[in-house]
Design goal:
The protein is built from eight helices and 20 strands. By secondary structure, the protein is α+β, with helices and mostly antiparallel strands. The protein folds into three domains: 68 residues, Uridine Diphospho-n-acetylenolpyruvylglucosamine Reductase, domain 2, CATH 3.30.43; 152 residues, Uridine Diphospho-n-acetylenolpyruvylglucosamine Reductase, domain 3, CATH 3.30.465; 111 residues, Uridine Diphospho-n-acetylenolpyruvylglucosamine Reductase, domain 1, CATH 3.90.78. Strand 8 and strand 9 form a beta hairpin. It is globular and about 60 Å long. The protein starts with a strand and ends in a 9-residue tail after the last strand. The relative contact order is 0.15. The protein binds uridine-diphosphate-2(N-acetylglucosaminyl) butyric acid (EPU). The site of uridine-diphosphate-2(N-acetylglucosaminyl) butyric acid has 21 residues, from strand 13 and helix 7. Uridine-diphosphate-2(N-acetylglucosaminyl) butyric acid binds next to strand 13 and helix 7.
Length: 349
């Protein structure tokens, strides 16, 4: 049985540095320990809060939950063909280290997802995406333990219900599973995705046929370092809101009023994906501060917690931003990271 640490302060385990306390914390390093931790929570009738890198979490108050810190480690090649490899990583592997490991092994497809904070196990939950690539395009399957039965279940790509920053683990099956490992299908020959404007611009000096996956990774890393605050310096949880989808007619009407509004056609939905960063920026919030919370000065979509107080003050600022954006543009913003405690509370085993 892993150690159970009561009244545990989570400040160092969430990238917003919110200093809330959990009823108890435990670190698990194997599937057996995951099952034991779930059993313990059941015995004490406590909700379970699975924790990875803590980079997509808003902890707004003390938690009456058992925090289960997923520290399962390991990366293995499970299968290969002439052109592809199937690589399994345990949930507790650091995402960026995993990306670099694959690049070094000559396994390609993850390069655009370089430097995303967090762990492998959390990546499918929000279908992480950046610079033209989403996790679903390299995903093969995952293995999870169901909280209610403590049984292992395999999820294929179809059963994960991936969409933009979304999966079944944020909706229909929210709080019902702990993801233990994820298997990726990667390429032995690079198939580079270079269409994202900021990335294309950064690599413009190199002839396209000569660009390597390592150069794509380095370019993405450089762009992220320029635009996004390092959580170790300035606590943050990445993009605080999803980019909202609006019907084409609404986008056309907004363009009449705001000719430089930024939106991209979304082929999957037939709608237009608006840049929430632009909306928030033009609403005058870039660099704004309220109490201990702030809007990042270089990227208005990122809210920060420089005062390292409870993330509830970041949420207060988020509410003010949402209300103003709605008033100005008639567009509703949806918070992207998981908020705890939430209306529907953490997972009950
Ligand atoms: N913009 C502004 N002002 C701002 C911020 C952005 O005008 O303060 C404009 C930019 O000029 C650009 C557009 O908005 O024309 C889009 O900005 P950017 O390329 O920085 O991307 P984003 O839409 O703000 C999304 C993801 C990021 C991801 C980048 C690159 C979401 C919610 N966010 O940001 O993901 O790294 O694209 O692909 O989809 C995250 O999820 O935590 C995250 C950082």
């Amino acid at each position: 049985m892993p150690l159970i640490l009561p009244e545990f302060n989570l400040a160092r385990l969430n990238t917003l540095a919110s200093p809330v306390t959990a009823w108890a914390y435990t670190s698990v390093a194997s599937r057996e320990e995951v099952a034991e931790a779930i059993g313990y929570a059941k015995e004490y009738k406590l909700p379970v809060l699975p924790l990875g890198g803590g980079s997509n979490l808003v902890l707004a108050a003390n938690l009456n939950a058992l925090v289960v810190h997923l520290n399962l480690r390991g990366i293995e090649l499970v299968d290969e063909s002439d052109s592809e490899v199937w690589v399994r990583a345990q949930a507790g592997e650091n995402w960026h280290e995993f990306v670099q490991y694959c690049l070094n092994m000559g396994w390609y497809g993850l390069e655009n997802l370089s430097l995303i904070p967090g762990s492998v196990g959390a990546a499918p939950i929000q279908n992480i995406g950046a610079y033209g690539v989403e996790l679903e395009s390299v995903f093969a399957e995952l293995s999870a333990i169901e909280l209610s039965s403590q049984l292992a279940v395999t999820f294929t790509r179809d059963s994960c219900g991936f969409a933009y920053r979304d999966s079944v683990f944020k909706n229909r099956l929210k709080d019902q599973y702990i993801i233990c490992d994820v298997t990726f299908k990667l390429q032995k020959t690079p198939q580079l995705v270079l269409g994202y404007p900021a990335l294309a611009e950064r690599l413009a000096d190199i002839p396209e046929t000569e660009i390597t996956p390592q150069q794509v990774s380095a370019a993405v890393t450089a762009i992220r370092r320029e635009k996004l605050p390092d959580p170790a310096q300035t606590p943050n949880a990445g993009s605080f809101f999803k980019n909202p989808m609006v019907p084409q007619a609404q986008f056309a009407a907004l363009q009449q009023q705001y000719p430089d509004i930024v939106g991209y056609p979304d082929s999957a939905s037939g709608q237009v994906k608006l840049a929430a960063g632009w909306l928030i920026d033009r609403a005058g919030f870039k660099g704004a501060t309220r109490k201990s919370a702030a809007v990042h000065k270089d990227q208005a979509l990122v809210l920060t917690n420089p005062g390292k107080q409870s993330a509830r003050y970041v949420l207060e600022l988020a509410r003010e931003i949402s209300a103003t954006v709605n008033e100005l543009y008639g567009v509703a913003l949806e918070i992207e990271p998981r908020v705890y405690p939430s209306d529907d509370s953490a997972a009950a085993p």
